[in-house]
Amino acid sequence: MIQDILNQFHISSQNSGVSTGTQWLKADGAVIDAHSPVDGKHIAQVTAASRANYDTVVTTAAAAFKEWRLWPAPRRGEVVRQIGEALRKNKQALGKLVSYEMGKSLQEGYGEVQEMIDICDFAVGLSRQLHGLTMHSERPGHRMYEQWHPLGITGIISAFNFPVAVWSWNAMLAWVCGDVCIWKPSEKTPLSAIACQQIVQEVLQANNVPEGVCCLLAGNRDAGEWLAADTRVPLVSATGSTRMGKAVAAVVAARLGRSLLELGGNNAIIISKDADLDMSLIGCVFGAVGTAGQRCTTTRRLIIHESVYDAFTAKLVKAYGQLKIGNPLDENNHVGPLIDTDAVRMYEHAIAEVQKEGGRILVEGGVLSGAEYASGCYVKPCIAEVENHYQIVQHETFAPILYVMKYKTLEEAIALQNGVPQGLSSSIMTLNLREAEAFLSQAGSDCGIANVNIGTSGAEIGGAFGGEKETGGGRESGSEAWKAYMRRQTNTINYSTQLPLAQGIKFDL
């Protein structure tokens, strides 16, 4: 089955990872070996970009921007609409490839491609709504307004956990705004990126889109560093760890460029004494174990009212006992593998640190062995009773480890929720209107996403996605996130016969 999918996307045993849109360049950088965490098998090789390849891509993209920005926005939107249709036709195959290469469940693989389709639909509508404002001038016979112009090249650095969706959040919006894009995918999931490039390529050719509007730049860390340092790239959108984001932000800021950062999360759900515990259980378990705990919005902490703590943790322990771990292409399984053995080592380290700091294990973790788990990447979802101040709890571990703790008052719960360096997603489970509104108030959650009676994971594309503090402050996807890809220009038009100055200043000759 997987070989048929690779053939469908023209992925062979050896592939170039460099494209300027419809042209695949002869890459001459390092060789990236793509392995699946599902079964540990080697899938294919991808040759990464050299510095010379990189310069060719940027030069081509810069030339394309000069033409692409002049296409009317609705015409650019029509290209994106056709990309959405192409993704619909390839949803099953691309979803399976994402699942196999990354290790997320098949349903989540399909869901990721659906996110791409949804953002295409959103971007098509946006292409006719890139609104500015009209302001009244203090000077007679004058009109003021603002408009938005494309920035130029958008560099997109994406992470392995969403190997295609996050690229599309950026690319589809950037394209309708008039920008061109250079995508540096994770070196852990290069084949999904190549498949996307193949899908888009046919649409670009059919619409005579300038070469360089959609570029792919497979590579290791150095390719991301080139993008961050390049003054020809006005915007770098980077998704990944806080450590990586800080490095990118520093380099981009040093040249006064723009960075859009989507970094770590340490997300909590508050379980109120007034919560519907059965409904809460579903949100908590999926939030904690979905994608094997490798989402930036994964539920990592549960803050449970003391009066329902024992009852709810008992429900959790029972639910964890029913989880099925195994091949994510088997839709009967709930939890697939971690991305690689490095992630497994971080998982084991985190559990050891919990115990060292005095935590109590409620559901034992561990690495699974046997023929079905031959890749060495399958682990047991773990639950640990902790204190919020533990050093390991303050950090994001990309693995299915759920920390639980008690609270007495809502104020204490919100303080615990906010008491970590990250600020991405948060939730409260309560049927108490006052509690819900307090959680959403100025004195409530300090995260970019705050939910009531749903989990921390599974955001829709209609809202702006992103977080505060060490999550980076960036916003992608819906709402007015499109403005990050454009530059604002204020215009004043004098249609009178006089030239009055603002603020009443007199300057007569």
Automatic annotation (TrEMBL):
Instruction: State the EC number(s).
Output: 1.2.1.3
In the UniProt entry, which residues are flagged as the active site?
262
Concerning PROSITE patterns, the annotation shows:
ALDEHYDE_DEHYDR_GLU
- Which principal EC class is assigned to this enzyme? oxidoreductase
> What is a single Pfam family found in this protein's UniProt entry?
Aldedh
Domain Aldehyde dehydrogenase positions: 24-490
An example Gene Ontology molecular-function term = aldehyde dehydrogenase (NAD+) activity
Keyword ATP-binding part of the UniProt annotation: no
Its keywords, alphabetically, are:
NAD, Oxidoreductase
What InterPro entries is this protein classified in?
Answer: Ald_DH/histidinol_DH (IPR016161), Ald_DH_C (IPR016163), Ald_DH_CS_GLU (IPR029510), Ald_DH_N (IPR016162), Aldehyde_DH_dom (IPR015590), ALDH7A1-like (IPR044638)
UniProt keyword Acetylation, yes or no: no
Q: How does it assemble?
A: Homotetramer.
> Family per UniProt?
Belongs to the aldehyde dehydrogenase family.
PANTHER family per the UniProt record, alphabetical = ALPHA-AMINOADIPIC SEMIALDEHYDE DEHYDROGENASE
The molecule here is called aldehyde dehydrogenase (NAD(+))
Species name:
Chitinophaga silvisoli
